[in-house]
Amino acid sequence: MDASKTADPIPSLPEFSTEVAETNEWENWEETALLHMTSQTLERVTLQAHELISLIKEFYANFHPLFPILPSLPDFIKAYDANTLLLWTIIAITSKESPEYSHLCVTLIDPVRSLAGDLYHTQSRNFETIQALLLLCIWPFPFQQTVHDPSPMYCSLATQLSYQLGLHRPNLHMHWEYGATAPNARVDLQRRKAWVGCFVVNHIISTRLGTPSAVQPGRAILSEIAGSSTSELPAPLLHYAHIAYIGVKALEALGDDASSATGETKYPIPLVTTFDQKLTTMRESLSSKW
């Protein structure tokens, strides 16, 4: 089957209150979805519909719970081919740990990297591109030296796209290019998850490199942290946000001291002790939810 042909829209899937419920009910729809999915090709790799659904389900079972920035499995399947980079990022990440598809990973690394670095592709400014870039930062492809790790570039691009799409202002329904947009609870939740994901990934990379984070905990992040008990965000994302918030404050205190000529604080040990205590307290308060 020609991968360039557009598949018929997958019939509407039922809406459920939680991602777990949606995943449990998915088996009832898999056969129908397979009938409407088409084969997909990226350079030398072609996957049939049953292979695509197998890899996507494997990603949602093994990877998505660890960094849940994507929509539920049924929602993703409905638009599985909407963004080429996101689809093949999921396939490449999954194939690394898949007994059945591990041979695909090496073949897909360079094509996926090319997609991620193509700033002039028609889909390069899409919301799904942000999701794909963040996933590539969390599960990077192998690299020999830190200087060759593209994660900081992917993170920077994802962050800039997020700012342009207004993800840092979740209650302002505006698009930087297209103007006002209509409120949509499901879309708003995805945008919030992506922005928290940007905050978390920026902190991970800044900690690794010893550089300032490109995303500061502004109103959007602070409101998610403050409203953790009633938040709709997945628990892992909220926990990561708590850790990243303390980490950002620690990096600021230790490496951006306005009273110091170099920016480095003169007396770091008391600060390290203080922030260590904060992390310990947070770990104890969240331990029952991990």
List the helices and strands and how they pair.
Blueprint: H1 19-25, H2 27-36, E1 40-42, E2 45-47, H3 49-62, H4 73-78, H5 84-97, H6 104-117, H7 127-138, H8 151-164, E3 174-175, E4 179-180, H9 185-209, H10 219-226, H11 235-255, H12 268-286
Antiparallel strand pairs: 1-2, 3-4
Helix pairs in contact: 3-5, 5-6, 5-7, 7-8, 7-9, 8-9, 9-11, 11-12
Description:
The chain has 290 residues and is mostly helical. The protein has a domain at 1-132. 57% of the residues lie in helices and 3% in strands. The protein has helices at 19-25, 27-36, 49-62, 73-78, 84-97, 104-117, 127-138, 151-164, 185-209, 219-226, 235-255, 268-286; strands at residues 40-42, 45-47, 174-175, 179-180. The strands form two sheets. It has a two-stranded antiparallel sheet with strand order 1-2. A two-stranded antiparallel sheet has the order 3-4. Helix 5 packs antiparallel against helix 6 (104-117). The longest helix is centred in the C-terminal third of the chain and has 25 residues, at 185-209. The protein is globular and about 65 Å long. The N and C termini lie far apart (44 Å).
Q: What's the β-strand tally?
A: 4
Q: What's the total helix number? A: 12
Spatial arrangement of strands, main beta sheet: 1-2
Structural class: mainly alpha
Task: Round the mean pLDDT to the nearest integer and report it.
Answer: 83
Largest sheet geometry: 2 strands, antiparallel
Rounded radius of gyration (Å): 20 Å
The fraction of residues in strands falls at under 5%
Helix content: 55-70%
